[in-house]
Amino acid sequence: SEAELSGAQLTTLFDKTDQVSETIEHLISGEDDHKTLDLKIKKRHNDTVDMSATFQLMSDGKHIACSIYPKEHSFSIGGQVERIDRLAMLGELSTGIAHEIRNPLAGIKSSAEVIGESLSPGDFRAPLIERVIREVDRSNELLKRFFDFARPVKPNPEFCSINEIIEAVALLIDKRLNRKKIRLERTYAEKLPQIYVDSAQIEQILMNLILNAAEAIERDGKIALRSRPVVKEGSLKGILIEVQDNGCGIAPDNLEKIFNPFYTGKSKGVGLGLSICMRLIRENGGQLTVESTQGEGSIFYLIIPVKYNLTGE
Asked: How many other CB atoms are found less than 10 A from the CB of residue 141?
């Protein structure tokens, strides 16, 4: 229990306490910024369980944060820390690049349009001018994605029903999936509490995940959407949304990369969709992880914490 752990020595929880102490010393001295160890976590009655623990120095330079999770978990906290750093750095970089490129593109498009209007019907240069305008528009769309990634709109949270959000997205996308003969199955847990999020941003995340799932399925596949409560120690901690497909799956070497900016396995993708999803869910206080088996499919887990509406509404 929390009371038993508060103020206790490391030996109360971990084995390999010498290794843990050495790790903490390295963090405080600045030799590492985080480190993950495989440890045995002690349970009641001297039982143990194999877990991984990531230790990270907090911003005050005095305290250590420790996150414990199953060894088989797809993402370590250390990997998430590195990913967040990359997101911040690339966000700043993309903003600067976008500003520098946007104005010249506008000039190129305006000039091309003027030239196009001056050409006689059937002029062999007209298709070339049209190609220039299309490429400028495509570049502007990419810049828009840069801005979405670099400066996502801050959430405007309100209490809402996660099942209603999922159903709204499902209704929007159902016809598109029908064209590929992909079945969309929904399983909703009943009597879930409302969540305090920006519903439009959660819809954006779910839409992106479902579209990605559809692209992973050749034809005649299935996408399952599920909602259920996350209960720990007898109390409700959050809501879990699952987006599962039976598509091509993700190679194990690529699982850690798919949330990185500009990484994509698609021939036409720019690799920002999942990065934006990760950023949006973090802005709303949630988590996004994935498990996948190549050739069998993938399942994305979206966890949103529960905040209670004390107004009673």
From this structure: 11
Tokens of 120: 């006689």
- Taking only the tens place, the pLDDT of each residue in 153-190 is 678 888 999 999 999 999 888 888 888 889 999 999 88
How far CA 185 is from CA of 78, 205, 228, 244, 288, in Å, comes to: 35, 18, 15, 10, 21
Q: How many CB atoms lie within 10 A of CB 104?
A: 10
Measure the N-to-C terminal CA separation of the chain; round to a whole number of Å: 33
Half-sphere exposure in the Cβ direction for 302 (13 Å, CA) = 29
Look at residue 60 in the predicted model and tell me its pLDDT.
64
pLDDT digits (tens, 9 = 90+) for 59-103: 666 777 777 766 544 344 445 555 555 555 555 666 666 667 777
CA-based nearest residue to 79, from 252, 257, 287, 242: 257
- Parts of the chain with a pLDDT under 50: 72-78, 310-313
- Nearest to residue 270, comparing CAs of 281, 284, 260, 280? 260
Paired sense of beta strands 222-232 and 183-188, if any: parallel
Angle at 215 between CA 210 and CA 221, to 5 degrees: 80
φ and ψ at residue 266, rounded to 5 degrees:
-95, 150
